[in-house]
Automatic annotation (TrEMBL):
<dbReference type="InterPro" id="IPR029044">
    <property type="entry name" value="Nucleotide-diphossugar_trans"/>
</dbReference>
<keyword id="KW-0808">Transferase</keyword>
<keyword id="KW-0812">Transmembrane</keyword>
<dbReference type="GO" id="GO:0016020">
    <property type="term" value="C:membrane"/>
</dbReference>
<dbReference type="GO" id="GO:0005737">
    <property type="term" value="C:cytoplasm"/>
</dbReference>
<protein>
    <submittedName>
        <fullName>Glycosyl transferase, group 2 family protein</fullName>
    </submittedName>
</protein>
<dbReference type="Pfam" id="PF13704">
    <property type="entry name" value="Glyco_tranf_2_4"/>
</dbReference>
<dbReference type="GO" id="GO:0016757">
    <property type="term" value="F:glycosyltransferase activity"/>
</dbReference>
<keyword id="KW-0472">Membrane</keyword>
<keyword id="KW-1133">Transmembrane helix</keyword>
Length: 353
């Protein structure tokens, strides 16, 4: 059986973990390697239980961390692990990212059948906004947030970022956040990269690109549903946790505005809802997991109450209430911005020459 491994790093995400795992088991991932760090909500204990059940491999990533930070420390450790070396396909994900396949039965097998020549497939983000939901609810993320960015975006570039599902054939020797790293020069010419529309990609994608070409659709065969905000209450907790790469940097309204797109309804992932729910029911049937999930939900609510007594988080929540959904930048305005981005790149290249 082909082994497809998802690698995840988490902190204080137990309330969302079972849905994430159920969805990705349903769509065909066979193995899961999960690193946790500095958890107060029981995420680490939930992962211990899932490890005992043979459903994930859990590694505590409690430091010390190298210069790349928490996530890259985890990936460096993963590079040496047998579960990674034995996998046929690899994908690094976050707990707010859900693979959404649009062909066949919406599983990895159907995607691979649609792109039989691919050794790497770019899964472009589709950003799902808050939809005006202020309060956190203990309900599936994929069924709660259904309003997203337009299928064709012109700005910002991060709206077209991707994660890479790639064949573990030795072409790349290190995991990365958005793309595999450390290519083998001898194997690189044989790499065949395709995007979510099924288009063959040029050589830049083999080595450097981390976002798809915007201004065109990228989701025909597969997309990556990205729920970076959640409800406003959840975002306050996320802000307190800090950024994934630089955990000491508090998130603000800037991060929110660049991701709170709600122009289009996208319910395509709900085709996986029956299979996901079946998997989720199996997980919640375990009394230990059920208790840990309930405790994590209570922790989130208590944590929000604590944060709201502090001015920075109370002010942030107020700003979120006052901030309207983000307007997608039209083509003419995007061209204005891109012109200056290109000028800055050109001047930077000349300055370093």
């Amino acid at each position: 059986m082909m082994r497809c491994l998802a690698i995840l790093t988490v902190r204080n995400e137990a309330a969302f973990l079972l849905e994430w795992l159920a969805h990705h088991r349903a769509c065909g991932f066979t193995d899961f390697l999960v690193f946790s760090n500095d958890c107060q909500d029981g995420t680490d204990r939930m992962l211990d239980r899932l490890d005992e059940m043979g459903l994930v491999t859990h590694v505590r990533n409690d430091g010390p961390y190298d210069q790349g930070g928490i996530q890259f420390t985890a990936y460096k450790a993963a590079d040496r692990m047998e579960i990674v070396q034995e996998a046929d396909w690899l994908l690094t994900l976050d707990v707010d990212e859900f693979v959404n396949i649009h062909v066949g039965d919406q599983t990895l097998s159907a995607l691979f059948a649609a792109l039989p020549e691919a050794t790497a497939i770019t899964l472009t983000w589709r950003l799902f906004g808050c939809g005006g939901q202020a309060s956190y609810r203990d309900e599936p993320v994929t069924q709660t947030f259904t309003k997203a960015a337009p299928a064709v975006m012109y700005w910002p570039w991060r709206a077209a970022m991707f994660k890479t599902l790639y064949r573990n054939d030795g072409t790349y020797r290190k995991l990365g956040v958005h793309r595999p790293r450390a290519p083998d020069p001898d194997r690189l010419p044989g790499a065949r990269w395709f995007d979510g529309e099924g288009r063959a990609l040029d050589d830049k994608f083999r080595t450097t690109r981390i976002f798809s070409t915007y201004g065109r659709p990228n989701y025909g065969l597969v997309q990556l549903n990205h729920y970076p905000l959640g409800a406003m209450e959840s975002y306050v907790l996320k802000a307190a946790r800090g950024r994934a790469v630089h955990s000491d940097h508090m998130l603000g309204v800037d991060y929110w505005v660049e991701r709170n797109f709600t122009q289009e309804e996208d319910r395509s992932i709900l085709g996986m809802a029956p299979a996901m729910t079946e998997e989720l029911d199996r997980l919640r049937a375990d009394p230990v997991l059920a208790d840990l999930h309930a405790a994590s939900v209570a922790w989130r609510r208590d944590r929000f109450e604590t944060l709201m007594k502090q001015e920075p988080y109370r002010a942030l929540f107020g700003r979120l209430l006052m901030t309207p959904p983000t307007r997608a930048v039209p083509l003419n305005e995007a061209r204005f911005l891109v012109r200056y981005a290109n000028l800055a790149r050109q001047e930077g290249a000349e300055g370093s020459a």
